[in-house]
Amino acid sequence: MKARVHVMLKNGVLDPQGEAVRHALGALGFDKVEGVRQGKVIDLDLADGATEADVTEMCEKLLANTVIESYSIEIQ
Amino acid sequence: MKARVHVMLKNGVLDPQGEAVRHALGALGFDKVEGVRQGKVIDLDLADGATEADVTEMCEKLLANTVIESYSIEIQ
């Protein structure tokens, strides 16, 4: 089973990486960029028998800092 | 227009972040994790008139290092 996890900073949490990308894109002449948020994507290759609940537990325990980050799971 | 860009290390390129996550998950008792690859996700908020071609150009020029990274674009 394969799972893809997206971890993004919650809305309202300052995202300096995203801001840096936005500035850099502006400096390169991309003037239509109004906002950028950067996060992490984690692709997990799981043995048979693993469930979405396991992935949720991984997110809660390790992959995301749930104080400032939100996550979403896609099973593929 | 909103676009989501995924930037992942190409297959065969060593991914120390992914390996670190895999080890940490193993240490936490998640023994069904066979592989982990970590990448970036960049959410772009674009003004009207921006096209997918613009986003491709952003990837080629700034967002991805195409020597070692591949990218994919989703228009939302």
TrEMBL record, chains A, B:
Q: Which residues form a coiled coil?
A: none
- InterPro entries cross-referenced by the UniProt entry: PurS, PurS-like_sf
What coarse category fits the chief subcellular location reported for this protein? cytoplasm
Any single GO molecular-function term of the entry would be: ATP binding
Q: Give the Pfam families listed for this entry.
A: PurS
Per the UniProt entry, the Enzyme Commission number(s) are 6.3.5.3
Localization (cell): Cytoplasm
Name its pathway.
Purine metabolism; IMP biosynthesis via de novo pathway; 5-amino-1-(5-phospho-D-ribosyl)imidazole from N(2)-formyl-N(1)-(5-phospho-D-ribosyl)glycinamide: step 1/2
Q: Name one GO cellular component term.
A: cytoplasm
Assembly and interactions?
A: Part of the FGAM synthase complex composed of 1 PurL, 1 PurQ and 2 PurS subunits.
Query: What name does UniProt use for this protein?
Result: Phosphoribosylformylglycinamidine synthase subunit PurS
| Native source organism of the sequence | Tritonibacter litoralis
